[in-house]
Specification:
The chain is an all-alpha fold and 188 residues long. The protein is built from seven helices and no strands. It has one domain. α4 runs antiparallel to α5 and α4 packs antiparallel against α7. The chain is elongated.
Length: 188
């Protein structure tokens, strides 16, 4: 796989700025690692369960691991490797973008200002991880873009499927209620 001129230009600037700071790079990359990612996803799903937002817990529990699986088990082997491994797309970026996207979807009912602050913070963290993996020379810029696309796409597709399944289930439940009671609307 050839490096594009965009990758070369972005990578050179990021490596020049961050390359001499291995501790900072380790900190930037850390949120995309499996252990912190799993802990953050579990905490987010647990918060949904405690608030009785089971569809939100399902979204996190399904979409985050699915995004990782699509990247690590399907795309990286399919696209092939380079002399330094299978870098496309970035698993670190896929992971944090999936969580940031899930969080943003879950914040739909939160007051606007708080929603914007939390979503901005989550996506700022994803940008930091992307800079970290580029600065540590683990990935090219295009690998991070690919990881972001997989993360966002997987979460939004999962949310759409869950929404369709839940709305179909709700319609079936409502029809069953009406046919068994002869009433119009169920009590609220």
């Amino acid at each position: 796989m050839e490096t594009s001129w965009v990758d070369a230009a972005v990578n050179a600037k990021v490596v020049a700025g961050l390359g001499g700071h291995p501790l900072l790079l380790a900190i930037l990359v850390w949120p995309g690692e499996p252990v912190p990612l799993t802990a953050i996803a579990a905490a987010l799903a647990l918060a949904c369960v405690l608030r009785r937002r089971y569809e939100g817990a399902a979204l996190v529990a399904i979409s985050a691991p699915l995004a990782t699986a699509v990247t690590e088990l399907a795309l990286k082997p399919l696209i092939g490797g380079t002399s330094w491994g299978n870098p496309f797309p970035s698993g670190h970026v896929t992971n944090v973008v999936a969580l940031a996207t899930a969080l943003t979807v879950l914040l739909a009912r939160v007051p606007r200002r708080l929603r914007l602050v939390l979503a901005f913070t989550a996506f700022l963290m994803t940008g930091a991880v992307a800079l970290g993996v580029i600065g540590a020379q683990m990935h090219h810029f295009s690998d991070t873009i690919g990881g972001a696309a997989v993360g966002v796409g997987t979460v939004l597709l999962t949310a759409l499927i869950l929404d369709l399944l839940l709305s179909t289930r709700h319609r079936q439940s409502l029809h069953h209620y009406r046919s068994n009671t002869g009433e119009g609307e169920p009590p609220t």
